[in-house]
Amino acid sequence: MTPLDAQSTTGGLPVAPSLGPTLGVEHVQRRAGPVDRRVVGLGALAVLIALAAGLVAQGLTRLIALCTNLAFFGRLSLEPASPAAHGLGLGVIVVPVIGGVLVGVMARYGSKAIRGHGIPEAMEQVLTNESRIPPRMTFLKPLSAAISIGTGGPFGAEGPIIATGGALGSWLGQRIHVTALERKTLLAAGAAAGMAATFGSPVSAVLLAVELLLFEYHPRSLIPVALAATVATGVRMAFVGATPAFVMPELAQPGGAALAFYVALGAVLGVASVLVTRSVYAVEDAFEKLPVHWMWWPALGGLAVGVVGVFEPRAMGVGYDNLDALLSGELLPRAALTLCGLKFVAWSLALGSGTSGGTLAPLFTLGGGLGLGLGAAAVVLAPGLGVDPRLAALVGMAAMFAGASRALLASVVFAFEVTRQPIGLLPLLGGCAAAFLVAALLMRTSIMTEKIARRGVRVLGEYEADHLHQLALRDVARRPVVTLPAGQTLGQTRAWLEHGGVPHQGYPLVDDTGAVVGVLTRKDLRAELPDDTVLHTLVRRPAVVISDDHSLRDAADCMAHERIGRLPIISRDAPGTLVGIVTRSDLIAAHVGRLAAQRLESKP
Prior knowledge:
mainly alpha, CBS-domain, Clc chloride channel, three-stranded mixed β-sheet, 7 strands, elongated
């Protein structure tokens, strides 16, 4: 649309001469790119956080070893140790109780936020508190987790390390001048670095951050998180080498029948993941009803862990050696199912009591044990399927996590990265997808989101392209624009409105060149002013305009930032030329097409 066409809708009233550059100042909104210089700075900060998180991971692993050696063997040593080799007899019951008392005291007098497994708490800070985690969490969380796990708590070290890395990123984001979105990126970078430093799984760490913490897929956040995961993995390699976290023997390529079994196995694990999630929160609800202060709940959970430890010592501690045994086929199916059941009892009671620990390793153990048991049963009952119990354990491990956390891609890639078994990728993808589907149908929330959902926090479980970002302003700038000459008087305008003028809530004001010099609202035109008042004198601010190559999302953001209800659109090819106007009504109407695409089409 040309300036002449725009001016022709003013009812034939004369156009004012040029008003000079003062009123011609235009604030044209710039179109933001996917990355800018600040992303470079964030990437550098993410690298620093990753270095710190990598060292924290190594430090926490050794601190857990120290606590384990002291609690179960009475020796000062940083060498890895497992409670499974203890010789305490019935005295093993006391050790987790003491650990629970210490964690309860730290939670009450230090920070209540150390309770739980860390990721839901980090998610809540992202969603409700602009990613601000209390700085004291950077040392209270790993210390409490080391005490809890080192005294037999059936948790993995990865949850506290992830939470500590996130706390480091949040702390740095609170100490320097960044936006809330950038602080969220630093938090996610620290969390991803923690996971990568624990398992040497950088890609799945990035995917976990995207699926559970970032709530977006955008280069400005993806790049720093990816850099952090890469550097943290390098730190791990410097300490423990480049070997995979869990070593598996070479697997044979599964046939079609075996693939079908692994998909069905994933569906079964999806049901199991829902039962596990509900059981954990049922235990937590039961503790809430106890007539005992919550500070003592971890001690009660520790009592349950100690009793289980009498019958199955391998259910205590981080249990990474159990995962090795499951995936290598060293553990017999019956022993695996026994370990799986007792591990679940100890873990659910301990986690429900509010102690400090993680969920990833216990979920992997439960899923791996069930997968191994069902895979072994398939070998006996239907040998023609070609099922490998070790691959079934791997699929079960990942499917349990996919169903419980709803982190589908992270679960698939994680199982590949920690074993480096490419043969398992296809069974993993099918099994995890089936687990995700079944779990999502049976339960709206996950083990990561149930707690914060109960507090009224709305957690998005899916991400899609912004519909308004896909619509260019040039596509909504087709209708004629009713403008007013800047040199026209208020009396002339009122007369025009009374004798057939087109009523609108606002009108762009243009000079004799067609350039926009401001916008007047109907309220401005109704002001009690003399009829000889010239319209341009009513303009209180320079014109805010936007070019036609921007999207409707850009326009909506501009209108919200400037607190205006309409925005003139100018041509990018012919700067200053008015081609349309976008209003709040246009933003609402733009969603009609999106809603129509979601409706079922009627058959012809």
